[in-house]
Amino acid sequence: MATTVPLFGLNLTDHTLSEAAEYVAACVRGGGEQTINFVNAHCVNIAAKDKNYFAVLRASNVLYADGIGMRLTARMTSVSFRDNVNGTDLFPCLCRLAAQRNIRIGLLGAEPGVARLAADNMKSQYNGLSIPFVQDGYFAENNIDGILESINVAGVDLLLVALGVPKQELFIHRFRQQLNVPVAMGVGALFDFYSGRVCRAPAWIRRAGMEWFFRLLLEPQRLASRYLFGNVMFLGRALVRRIQGRHVLQFKSL
Ligand code: UDP
How far apart are CA 24 and CA 2, in angstroms? Predict the structure, then answer.
């Protein structure tokens, strides 16, 4: 049984990357339906303002802490996560296990053509990998029933939804009952990276916890508010709660 770390009213699971991949693969064969999401500083900022999104995160079966902000906040409570478990680093581990264990992956999200490129890249690296469902993330509301049906007909075991935060988590929550998929995960910009459309930060920048800064340099207009203003807001939130002496950092609404 993995340790969970309570932060901002959310229970975050302390898995290593390989434990997380094994956990997801076990869930696929476990007979239940799991929803797994990743929580970073941006998610916490949105959850602080949007109670519905916060409730959706809390309803997830498993949440992983993603990014330097979550790690620093955990350290304020004298806890440290063993790994930075985010969708982008987890994806190759999942593809390796999926190819070995006949787990069928579905990709939903990103701009037209991007998820297909990511699927082709991964299939060329992992022999036997099956990705029977691929769909971009710019669909009309009246196409959703058809998309859900295609996912179910394709027999997807693991659905990765890349519609951005909070759209992807809300989408999974809203349609979870209609999806006959053992595991669904919200994965952010993952397909952009694995398609080669967006360059990922070099490993040393990621290790230093500065991937956000690299992304900011690549897309300053879109990400300036999220990272510059957002990071300050996030750290302020964490510090205020720490000064108030709350060991378990919680939102007031709880
Ligand atoms: N996206 C999408 N449909 C939408 C909005 C966004 O498919 O309606 C995709 C977008 O093309 C990108 C991903 O969602 O591939 C989210 O990217 P972002 O950089 O915001 O993700 P994060 O920083 O949360 O990982």
Answer: 13
Secondary structure (3-state) at 185: strand
Q: Give the residue carrying structure tokens 């998309």.
A: 147
Instruction: List, as one string, the DSSP characters of 20-70.
Output: HHHHHHHHHHSSS-EEEEEE-HHHHHHHHH-HHHHHHHHTSSEEEE-SHHH
35 forms beta bridges with 184
Q: How far is the CA of 189 from the centre of ligand 1 (A)?
A: 5
6 lines ligand 1 (CB under 6 A): no
Q: What is the tens place of the pLDDT at every residue in 193-220? A: 999 999 999 999 998 999 999 999 999 9
Distance between CA atoms of 147 and 142, rounded to whole angstroms? 10
pLDDT tens for each residue of 157-205: 999 999 999 999 999 999 999 999 999 999 999 999 999 999 999 999 9
Write out the H or E segment, with its range, that includes residue 71. Answer: helix 68-76
Please name which of 75, 95, 70 lies closest in space to residue 85, comparing C-alpha atoms: 70
Here the tokens at position 213 are 């800064």
Burial status of residue 246 (CB atoms within 10 A of its CB: 0-12, 13-18, 19 or more):
exposed
Q: Is the pTM of this model over 0.70?
A: yes
Q: How far is the CA of 190 from the centre of ligand 1 (A)?
A: 9
Measured from the CB, is residue 109 less than 6 Å from ligand 1?
yes
